[in-house]
Structure formats: C-alpha cells, structure tokens
C-alpha cells in the first residue's frame, strides 16, 4: 500500500478506529472472564458486553494497543511506515512525523509493534538447506532503574551476540544460476539474541529456528557441536576466499542488519536489540509479500498483549 492509498483508506481517527473494530470482530471477541464469544456492542461506552457474564471488553483490551493512550491513527501510521518502507525509522523521526510532544510513548509504541513482529515470525521454522553463523552487534547497556522500566539513560558500550540462520537453497537451474552472483537463493531468515556461545545455550536456540533433519552449513565454530544428531551439519573452517560461496547469505544478512542499526538507531540498548532485529527480519521475510500493513494489523489485533509479558 502506498502513501496515497493509505491516506484514502485511513484518513482520520474515526476510519482507523472503525477498521480496528472490524478487524477485532472478524477475529472474534472472547470474554476474558468466561471465554464466551457472544457479545453486545455498547455504543456509548464503545465496549463489548459479554452475553453470558456481562463482563466488559474495551476495543483495545487484549490487543497490542492495550493500555495505550495514543490515538489509533498513530498506531496505523507507525505500522504503515514500518511495513511500507525498506529502511527503518527512529522513534524520534516517527515522533516528528506525528507531531507528538512526548518521545517516550512513541518509543514504547514502536517497541510493542516490533515485539508483535517477532512473535509472528516465531511461528515460522526454517527448513531444507540453511546457513548458520553468529554475529556481534555493538550495543549499549543502559543503566536503568528496574522500577522505571522502558526509560532511557546513559549507557556503556557492549557487544550483543546474535545467532543468525537463513534458508539458502542451491539454484540448480544453470541458466538462472549464471545470472546471479550468489549461487544460492535466500528464503526466510531468523535472528536471535543469545546470552553466550556456549553449546548448551546455542543448541536449543538452533532447534527452535531450524526444522529437525534440515541441512545446516556453518563455519567450524565449536558452539555448533551439539546439533550433529538432529541435522545434516557441515561445519568446518572455511578459507576466506571460499566464504562467499559456502555461506553466501548469512554474512550479507548480518552486515545489512548492522548497517540498519547503526544508520537509523545509532545507540541500541541491548535490552531491546532483539526488537530491532525483529523488525529487520520481519521486513526481510516479507520482501515479496503484498498487503504487509493488513497482515501486521491482523497480528496486532489477534495477539493478546497480556500474554506477551
Ligand atoms: Zn463472559
């Protein structure tokens, strides 16, 4: 959806709210108290009332917007910007575009959207031929009072370790293969922040990312020594000039992600680095999809925010 279409469908707060309500209705409203699915709509209060136990459900309750005082239109604009463009946006830039006077709620909104993107992608699992590597991202550790969660402050430099896997299918058709510098085709990708490269940390993360029985190609890192029983794993030291042939995608994905974080977000707090990567991965996985905004809206409405922690 381009900017003109977006403005045509969602020109104001009323149209955004109405689209949000329609989406909730098509997902089905479920009573939090008794799980009943039949409700009256209380027009004045703008709430649903359970036909069985009279419990009231607000429009935003149970969605990504729960507890947010920001207008629906803000969420719609933010979701549009995050899905319609290849690059990311800083919270400062979105704040400027929305003309909002406070930074914090905008920053929180964007992180909630990125969390939802990550939860959506957790439903995918990579399969068949895959590449695997670890990457180190420059982040900062923000000294934050735990009671004042989500507030920003001064931080110290550190490196965040990220496990990266990409589907990477060998292009068998020589006529197609000749046209591409890379001899493998990129499929879906996954990036997960990990606390260390110890085998016992890395192995379960790989198992959550890649389907059992798949091919995994990596370098000779000993961190990947725990997967040989479950995968067809080829992991050996790769000479420098061979890397682009053996692992053509995983390094490209890592260096593009690093550039995005550095160019747009500058100083990423390590507590939130997974969220920024969620956005990057979500967009890359949907590079050939249409209707990304609508897909994200469905996801935002149907995930119960309370269960996200
Ligand atoms: Zn009920």
Task: Name a few traits of the molecule.
309 residues, alpha/beta, 3-stranded antiparallel β-sheet, 11 helices, binds zinc ion
Q: How does this model look, in words?
A:
The chain is an alpha/beta fold. Helices cover 39% and strands 19% of the residues. The strands form two sheets. Strands 6-5-4-7-8 form a five-stranded mixed sheet, with helices on both faces. Strands 1-2-3 form a three-stranded antiparallel sheet, with no helix packed on it. Strand 2 (47-50) and strand 3 form a beta hairpin. Helix 3 packs across helix 11 and helix 5 (104-121) packs across helix 10. The longest helix has 18 residues, at 104-121. The chain is elongated. The two termini are 31 Å apart. The model is unreliable at 145-151 (pLDDT under 50). Bound molecules: zinc ion. The site of zinc ion (ZN) has 8 residues, from loops. Residues 31, 33-34, 36, 50, 52-53, 55 line the site of zinc ion (ZN).
User: Which consecutive residue ranges, at least 5 long each, have pLDDT under 50?
Assistant: 145-151
Give the overall average pLDDT: 88
Q: What's the story with the biggest beta sheet?
A: 5 strands, mixed
What letter string, H or E per element, gives the SSE order? HHEEEHHHEEHEHEEHHHH
Name the hetero compounds present: zinc ion
Radius of gyration: 22 Å
Query: In percent, how much strand structure appears in the residues?
Result: 15-25%
Give the termini distance in whole angstroms: 31 Å
Strand arrangement within the widest β-sheet reads 6-5-4-7-8
- Characterize the overall form: elongated
Number of strands: 8
